C-alpha cells in the first residue's frame, strides 16, 4: 500500500502563463479587456506612425544629387540638407577659414570630456583649461585679427556654429551672474536684496523676445554716441541677463536647502562671509542644484532659436532662409525636421547627462 | 596706555562692524546705480533728440495706418484706428491664444501624465516618447513646423478637406458653422450662469449633509443635468433665439460660418502640445509623490480604485502639481509672444513690432509691452496662489 510518497517531489516550474514572455504580456498588456483594447489600438498607432516616418525619411527619400530635380521619390528630399550643409553648419563663415571653427570644437570637446566624465578625479586643471583657456583661444580663433588670422566679422557667423556660440557664452556668463544675484537675494542688506529681487522677478515676468527686442532696439539708445555693439553682442547681453535671472532662482533653491547650522558652524570657526560662502555653502548648494542647472541650460539652448526674431542667422533662421530659396521650394518639412533632430540630439543628451549625474550624486539615501 | 589701546580698538571695530559696513556697501550700491541711471538717461536724451524721436505717450492716439490679420471683438480700419486700438487688439489676441492654450495643454498634459503611469507597457512607452521628443525640441522650431510644414501645405480653398456638409480644412484655416445670436439670446448665457451657481450651492449643501448625516448625494450627475437641461429649456422657451450660419463656397473664398486662421491654429497647436509635455511630467511626478502606502491603506479600508484615485491620491498629488503647473501656465503665456515668428497678431507682433517700427518710440512701446506681461504674470500667480492655498494641507 505505497500510495504515500515518501521522498520530496521535485520543484515544478511556475505555470507558463505566469512567467516568461507570456506571463509578462498577460501582466503588462492584456490584464483586462480594456487594457487589451488599449494595447491593440496603441500597437496599430505605432505601426501607422512608424511606417509613415520610415517610408518618408528613408525608403522613399532621396539622398543622392545636387539640385531639386534629383528629388524624384515621394519621400523626403535630404538633398536639400546636403546641398546646404556647409551653410547650415557654419553660416557665411568663409569656407577656407572653417577649420578654425573645427579646431575650436575640438578644444572645447577635450575640455568637456575631462570635466564632465569620471576619467579624472581632480577637476581643477580640466576646469581651468575649459573655463579660461578654451574661451580665450576660441575668441581669437573665431574672430581673428591676431596671429596672422584673417578677421571674420560676426555678421558672417551663422548656422549651428552661431547657435553653439550663443548657448555657450550665455551659459558661461549667466552662471556666475546668477550666483551673485542669488546671494544678493538672500543678503541681509535690504537695498541689495530689493534690487536683486526686483531684477529677478522683472526678468522672469517678461518673455525673452521682449528682452531681446530691448537689447536690440534700446541698447543703442542707452550708449553714448559713436559707441556701438554689433548685433551678436547685443543678443548675448539680452540672453545672458535673461538666463541669469532663472539661474539665480535655481541657485537660491540650492542655497535654501543647506541647513543654517552650516553657516553658523563656518562663522564660529572664524570664516568671513565670502570664505564661508566659497568654501562651505556654495560647494554644497551648487552640487545639489546641478540637475536643475543643467535643465536651465537645456532651456537656454532651446531659447537660442529666438534670435531669429532679431535677425541673427542661427541654425533655425539659416534653414528658414533656405526654405524660402526659389531653387528649393517646398522644402519646409525637410528643413524643420532636420533642425528639430539636431536640437533633439543636443537637448536629449544633456537631459540624460543630468539624470546620470543626479544618480551619481544621490548616493546613500536612495531607496 | 589702556585708553590708547581701547581707542584704536574702537575705531578699528567701527570698520569691522558688520552693520557699519553693510550701510557703507548699500550707500555705495545706491550711488553707483544712480550714476548709472543718470548716465544712461543722459545718453538716451541725446540720442532721442539727435534722431528726432518724440517721447511721451501721445503716439497712442495717432492713426496706426497698417492692416492687421486677425481682429477679434473689435472694429479696426487702418485709416481711422489708432495705436491704442492696435495695443488693445494685441492684448485680446494674446489672451485668446493663451487661455485656449492653457485649457488644451492642461487636458493633453493630464491625459499623457496618466498614460505615462499606465501599467500597460505599450501605452506607457507611447507617452514617454511623446514627452521626451516634444520637450527636447525648441518651441519655435515646432511652431515653424506646424505653420510652414503642416498648415501651409494643406489643400487650397477649392479642394478643402471636407468633414460632412459644413466643416472644412484648407490652407486658409478651418471653417465651421457659426451661431449668430438674435433677439433674446442673452437668456441662454444667463440660464447657464444660474445653472452653474445652483450646482455650486447644491455641492456645498451636499457636502455639509454628508458631513452631518453620512448620506451621499449624486452631485456630479445633478450638476451635469442642471447645466445641460436649463439652457436647453431656455432655448426652447425663447424659440431658438439664434440662427446658424454655415460656411459655403463662394467664387473665391468661403463665406459665412466661423473660421480659425492657420496662424492661430499653428500657435495653439504648438503651444499646447509643447506645454502639454511639461505638464504631463509634472502630473506624473505629482502622482508618484503620493506614497504607495496611501493606496494600500485605502484599498484595505475597502475603497474602490476609482474612488481611491479621486478621494485619496489626487487631492494629495494636486498639492505637488499646482506650483509647477502655475509656472507652466506663465511660460505658455510668455511663449505666446513667439507668435511674431509666424505672423499671428499678438501684442508683441503688432505693438512691439509694427507700431514700434512706425513710431520709433522704442522705450514707451517696450515699457507698455513688458508691463502687460508683468501684470498677466502677476494675475496668474495670484489666482494659482489662491487655489494652492485652498487645496493646501491644513495642519493643526
TrEMBL record, chain A:
Keyword Transport: yes
Protein name as annotated: ABC transporter permease subunit
GO molecular function, one term: transmembrane transporter activity
Family statement drawn from the similarity comment of this UniProt entry: Belongs to the binding-protein-dependent transport system permease family. HisMQ subfamily.
Record carries keyword Metal-binding: no
CDD domains, per database record: TM_PBP2
Start and end residues of each ABC transmembrane type-1 domain: 160-349
Main location, first listed in the record: membrane
Gene Ontology cellular component list: ATP-binding cassette (ABC) transporter complex
Mode of membrane association: Multi-pass membrane protein
Subcellular localization: Cell inner membrane; Cell membrane
PANTHER family cross-referenced by the UniProt entry: INNER MEMBRANE AMINO-ACID ABC TRANSPORTER PERMEASE PROTEIN YHDY (PTHR30614:SF41), MEMBRANE COMPONENT OF AMINO ACID ABC TRANSPORTER (PTHR30614)
Parts of the chain that traverse the membrane: 34-59, 103-120, 127-149, 161-183, 195-223, 276-298, 304-323, 335-355
TrEMBL record, chain B:
Primary location recorded for the protein, binned into one broad class: membrane
Gene Ontology CC terms: ATP-binding cassette (ABC) transporter complex
Membrane-spanning ranges: 23-41, 53-74, 86-115, 136-157, 185-206, 218-244, 264-283, 338-356, 362-387
InterPro entries: AA_ABC_transptr_permease_3TM, ArtM/GltK/GlnP/TcyL/YhdX-like, MetI-like, MetI-like_sf
Gene3D superfamilies: MetI-like (1.10.3720.10)
Domain named ABC transmembrane type-1: residues: 91-384
Coiled coil (residue ranges): none
Subcellular location: Cell inner membrane; Cell membrane
Keywords: Amino-acid transport, Cell membrane, Membrane, Transmembrane, Transmembrane helix, Transport
Membrane topology (UniProt): Multi-pass membrane protein
GO molecular function per UniProt: transmembrane transporter activity
Gene Ontology BP terms: amino acid transport
Superkingdom classification of source: Bacteria
Family listed: Belongs to the binding-protein-dependent transport system permease family. HisMQ subfamily.
Name this protein carries in UniProt: ABC transporter permease subunit
